[in-house]
Amino acid sequence: MTQYTSQLANSISNFNLDVHVITPKCTNENVNYFNENISFNYVPQIKKLLSLNSFRFDIFIKCIFDINPDIIHITMEHPWLIPYLLVFENKCPIVSTIHDSKKHPGDWSPYPYLISLKLLKKKSSRIIVHSKAVKNQLLTEGIPEKKINVIPHGAHSFFSKYCIKDVAEENWILFFGRIVDYKGIEYLIKAEPLITNQFPNTKIVIAGNGDVSKYKNFISNKEKFIFINEYISDEMTAQLFTKSKLVVLPYIEASQSGIIPIAYSFKKPVITTQVGGLPEVVKDGITGYVVPPRNYELLANAIINLLGNDQLRVKMGENAYIFMNENLSWDQIAYNILDVYKSALNQK
């Protein structure tokens, strides 16, 4: 989330606006993500409450009053924002970015988080979502359409600064991200025998935090897999995307994915599924392929098609990079977010 918030803050500050970021002191090491125009206000964390991180509310509230903002933009729900919302909802408009409107299968969301999410939906003057699919979910919950603004997830092109020149591609298929049930990893694993029967030297790289033990039973050929089951640094992220031939996201449910812009920044095509907002960003047959969820045979066919046609694979990667620059640039996103801010201020 630091990477997302930093790019948002940086792009907004480019419009000669004063941007203040309130963050726990424990994230101080991430300050290099932000440009020199950003002002930081640190709020110390305290002992966990109900197994969730909390922080000094007195300092937090003082920061808000000292800054005296025109807009408060919340980039992620947190249960301990609840009293803050009650204090400041009448002080200035609150704009919230809601990444997921509901809990995904297998994703741990304690009750306080769900309450916080519900309050954000109710108390925010404007809501930003990253896909039409999430907007439609909010509409079914009775959120007024005038409050909801669809703005795509911005590019993660800053990862490219960690690239090592002249690194050759490996015969790798990359799954990248948190390892949780809704990501559908078992379908990629089940597709492996079909893929390696055609391309025996191919390996599937599964990189990210999470419990991989439940997927071991699906694996037929252990030597065809590389598991990097840990937090992935920016440097390693760049290496993995650089070396991989394509990226596969076999999700069974989704809102959107921040992994797709990373893949596009490395000119890698993405094969994903027809769920949530993923088809809004992966253009079938242009920047990758979109297949039905839970169908490992069609997933394998799409992968085999790209592995067997380097010219098409490279072309799709180039298309993905162009799409990113034309549709996912933070300059354009910041411009659209400023319109949301203006709308919220005019409503006040």
From TrEMBL:
**Domain Glycosyl transferase family span(s) in chain numbering:** 169-321
Q: Which domain of life is it from?
A: Archaea
One annotated GO molecular function: glycosyltransferase activity
Q: Sorted alphabetically, which InterPro entries does this protein's record hold?
A: Glyco_trans_1, Glyco_trans_4-like_N
SUPFAM superfamilies on file: UDP-Glycosyltransferase/glycogen phosphorylase
* Gene3D superfamilies in the record: Glycogen Phosphorylase B (3.40.50.2000)
Record keywords = Transferase
Transmembrane region(s): none
Q: Indicate the segments forming the Glycosyltransferase subfamily 4-like N-terminal domain, all copies.
A: 3-154
Please name the CDD domains in this protein's record. Answer: GT4_PimA-like
Q: Which PANTHER family match?
A: BLL5144 PROTEIN, GLYCOSYLTRANSFERASE
Record protein name field? Glycosyl transferase group 1
